[in-house]
Structure formats: structure tokens, C-alpha cells
Amino acid sequence: MSAVGVAAPARRRRMLLGPETYELVFGTVYTGLMTNLLLALACLPLAVLVAATDLASTWPLAALTAPLLGPALVAAFTVFARFSADGSTAVVRTFAGAWWRHLRRGLAIGALGTGAVVVAVVDVAFFWGRTAGAAAIPVLVTLAAGAVATAVLALAAVPEMPDARLRDMLLAALVLGARRWYVSVGVLVVLGLLTSVVATRPAVGLGFAAAPLLFAAWGACRFALRPPPPK
Questions:
Q1: Greatest Cα-to-Cα distance within the chain, rounded to the nearest angstrom
Q2: Which of 23, 56, 135, 191 has the highest count of CB atoms within 10 angstroms of its CB?
Q3: Taking the model in full, what pTM does it have?
């Protein structure tokens, strides 16, 4: 009786740590680390500026290279979608294919988002310390946040709607992001956390934190982009 009682839990433990579990764990870790590496390579000029320079003085160069984030995020979101759908760990092939296929749209969305943020930041600097700043600065910050949220939602929609026009995609991202504003706020919080980690510890942010935080942002974006239920 005692031998049977001891053997049964042992068999259960072995079943809980079967080959499928190890495959899932290692596949998840590999997908995350490889996605981090490919993101860093796809945004290498921006990554170098963030890691090796003072952005207070090199921000114009950072603004010029920031649109590279567009196709890189589209490619990363495509990797996440493939991994979530069928557990695919063909990260390099998926990332490279999506990056090349959606390069123009990714750069366009990245440039539009970057331009909106730069204009807002310059205007905030202009109004800072002025009487009109009390009214203008909150509006400008809100517009910049909305531009970032819309851009990220549009980038998440690019692989889902490859045949849609860019204007329609941006409009859908703007409307659905505003309708589900609480999700957009969550996406901004996640992106803000990632930005702060990358700015303070680039190796940790780009090497470990980027993929899990972007996966959370991608999941929120997919929820926000769902069509509203019929009335």
C-alpha cells in the first residue's frame, strides 16, 4: 500500500513536467529573447543613440531614427500573433518577412507618430513658463499621448489588415482607441514603462524587458481593435 501511495504522486509529477511543458517553456523563452535581439537590430541607430548619447542634446537624431520603430513593431507583433496561434518559433523568418512586407506602412505610421510627438514637445517647450501654458500644455500632452496610442494600434492592425488603406487603418485605430480609451491608457502605461527601462538600463530593456512588455501591449491593442458589438 505504501509503495503504491509513493509511486502515484511521482508519476503525477512526471506528467506535469512532460515534453510539451519543456517545449512550451523553451519556445517562449527563445521567442522572447530572439524577438528582443531582432528589435534591437531593426532599430540599431535609435538603440545606439539611446544607449550611448545624451538624448537632451541628440534628440533631433533620435527623432529622425524613431520611425524605424514602426516596421520593427509590426514585425514583432506578427511574431507574437504566430506564436499565440500555433506556437511557431520561426522567429527570424517571421520577423524578417513581416518587416520587409510592411516596411513602407510601418515607416509611414512611425513617421506620422514621431512627427506628432515632436511637434507637441516643441510646443510644450514654447508654452512652458508662459501664462497660456496652463491651458495649452495639458491639451498638447493629451494630443501627443493620443498620437502614440493611435500609431501603436495602427501598427498592430497592419498584419491583420494587409489590404486596408493606410488612411482607413489610422482612422479605425483613432476611433477604436478613443472608444476603448481605458485600453489605450493601459498600452501607454506599458510603453512608458518600457521606455523608462530602456532609457535607464538599455541592456535590460532591450535584452529582456522589451518582448514581454510589447506582448502585453499587443494583446491590449488586439482587444481595442475588435469591432464594437452590434446594437
A1: 84
A2: 191
A3: 0.89
